[in-house]
Amino acid sequence: MKKGLIFIGFSTLFFSTMEIAIKLAGSQFNPMQLNFLRFLIGSIILSPLAIRHLKGSGFTLDKSKVLYFLFSGLMCVVVSMTFFQMAIVYAKASTVAILFSCNAVFVIPFAHFFLKEKLTKLSLVSLVVSLAGMLFIVNPENLTNVTGITLSLIAAVTFALYGIVGRKGSLKYGFDGVVQSSFSFLFGSMELLVLIWITKIGAVAGWLRSVGLNDFANIPVLQGISWGTLPMLIYLGVFVTGLGFSFYFLAMETTSASTASLVFFIKPALAPVLALLILGESITLNVLAGILLILAGSCVELISDNRQAKLEKQRMIKQPIASKEAHVR
């Protein structure tokens, strides 16, 4: 358990500095370029752990799995993380960090409708409390950054959908989280690289600029990488994306999924504090109230998950006993 808590600590630290590091690197790299580079590096760092998990499993990368990873990579890297990168351009790092952490809240209704998972009363309470917290942060009465808020919420919702896709893949193919993430990051990076090459076509680049999408026109691949920018790129790719997810999955192995999910419960509180210290971003009273509500909602969901896990465990224990009694009769 002690080792698991250490893994959770490192994962939380790396994930909580993600938006800050991207904000600092934003002036040196194109947002889409940075997205591609960090997930490509992240997939490479995750690959040894994924290979270890697949050892002796008889895993083969057939057409069905390739199509699946192409879709999951599209949802994660190309769609969700593109909106995430753009959100950091238009909004404060702390705001994006808090709102994106709410992706776990959106998983609740998606899991009910797409995976037919039971929607408990505690899950509903968690959803309502967390949504109230988001409203405090967004502050509709004084909404000055519509673009940044909208992009952050779209990123959170689409990442929640990626989570549902991942669960479906796990049920169908028997993948665990590290295999799912490693392959999805790799395939998503390759898809993003193809799109980057397309933006270099003269006619395409001209059209994108004509409609005001300058960040998406003629996207560079390696431009901007220098001895000065390499440390930040390594931090984002190796530590935040690669080791951040590695420690998260190792925490899951040594503790439990519910305990490991504390990473995403701590992040909404820690990220704004780090953004204040590193970027000088202020924490207003409504944002503080929103953080507290989101943390409360997350705690309620954690309690709900633990209760469901205990009920499932009791059910599994009772089944063999019932079977034995029926056999005796």
Automatic annotation (TrEMBL):
Localisation: Cell membrane
Keyword Transmembrane found: yes
Source domain of life: Bacteria
Annotated ranges, domain EamA: 3-138, 147-299
GO (cellular component) term, any one: plasma membrane
Membrane-topology descriptor: Multi-pass membrane protein
UniProt entry tagged with the keyword Transferase: no
Alphabetic keyword roster: Cell membrane, Membrane, Transmembrane, Transmembrane helix
Stretches that traverse the bilayer: 37-54, 66-90, 96-115, 122-140, 146-165, 185-208, 228-250, 262-279, 285-303
UniProt family annotation: Belongs to the EamA transporter family.
Name listed for the protein in its UniProt record: EamA family transporter
Source species of the chain: Sporolactobacillus terrae
